[in-house]
Amino acid sequence: MSQILIRNATIVAMDSSHGAAPFAGDILIEGETIKAIGEALSAGPDARIIEGRGKLAMPGLVNAHTHSSETFLRGRYERMPLEIWLLYAYPLLMNDPIGERLLYLRSLLLAMESLRTGVTTFCDDFFDPPRHDLDRLATVFRAYDDAGIRANVSSAVMNVHTLDALPFSREVMPAELQALLDFGPPMTASAYIDYCRSAFSSLHGKSGRLHFMIAPSAPQRCSPDLMAACMDLAVEKHVPFHTHILETKTQAVTGHRLHGKSLIAYMHDLGLLKRNTTIAHSVWVSDEDMRLMGEAGASVAHNAVSNLKLGAGIAPIRRLLDAGVTIGLGTDGVSSNDTSRIFDVMRVAGLVHSAAGPDYESWLAADEILAMATIGGAKTALLEQVTGSIEVGKSADLLILDLRNYPFMPLNNVAKHLVYSENGSSIETVMVAGRIVMENGYLTTVDEQAVFDEIAELVPAYLAEHAELERRNSTFEPVMAEIHRRATRIDIGLNRYQGDGAGRHLQS
Ligand SMILES: [Zn+2]
Known about the structure:
Keywords: Hydrolase
Shape: globular
Bound molecules: zinc ion
Protein name: 5-methylthioadenosine/S-adenosylhomocysteine deaminase
Enzyme class: hydrolase
Number of domains: 1
Organism: Ensifer adhaerens (Sinorhizobium morelense)
EC number: 3.5.4.28, 3.5.4.31
Distance between the termini: 57 Å
């Protein structure tokens, strides 16, 4: 079996005994797996030796939440809250789905950028309306297989009418606009579960690195029977029930208007908070919500950059941690973030929580943020047995960074450099399951220039069609703006625009 020996490196293992504390040593990789960690390890005569002196070996980063469907919409929007931005990034009135070749390139581009910037695993909440098509899902899997990344991929589902998932919508939207949104009968629970079962039998486990996960979009967008069936299947297959909860103030108001309680309490009452539950955002949660989430062993994907871009607010991460919730970091899609770099999310998470209040001892520490970006993210993906730390027996998903580079010059504290100084520019080598997928500044699995050429040739026509679609959907913007304004004015006893610091300070 092929061997790689990394010698004399500085290692940040993120395992339970070392955490983010660096130590010097060797790492022996055999096939896909980390075989040994220690000093002066020996390897077979054919082993490839990587000299680690002056280098940092660390676990590959985990992007706990993204949407490949947004990859061609980077750098396109600004100054829009979620409810407005959705109109343009996920238009209500749709064209035909993106063509097969562009679908492949769009997925591939996300995987390429992710690997180059140190993300070895991502959770792609793939959204491909109006249908669930196994051939198209297979195209996404093929792109990730070709790039060499590890991924959880969903086929996101919703089956509640848009207007029934938003507060005030029927009051605010003129009848002639409402009539445009009649798209026929919604997806049934049994049809979606049948689809998921065929995805499990044909795609799940592909190459050992690619998994299917279950992703009901959000509790206000899915019927209770659909979510219950999704949870049963997620538990049966040991995959995440990956969903969005309480990203915006509008969604916080939605729970109270629809069910007389928060959407987290609603999920709890339906028996849908479990270890398998991974919640993107969790910005507008109450103390009681956090208690329920922690008790259930649920996880949160914290999308610090996206939440700022869309004006959603600041998730109460310290209090979620205190409640026992597992936290990973996500970029969210490339349209609400504009990059797929987890290093950026680490830095923003390291900075933004100190704006949340004066109680500086509760601000997040670099070690904690590094844990969220690695082992925490792996837990949110139910992959903590496989990846997220450098440990014997785990898959060799790791990065080698050059410490003789600006972000580390001079070296003080590795974790703090990684969170506050590094942006991915020091990454020399990226390995997924023992395979070197990036080396000397280039991906080894994909001809990057050829992909860029093809994107430059094919994508402008797609974006021209998308611009026309934006124009058609803009008729809904005044309505969405009014819903956003009304929700903003309702007092639900939380102010997440400024995070959790003020409330915490008052309590202590
Ligand atoms: Zn999302």
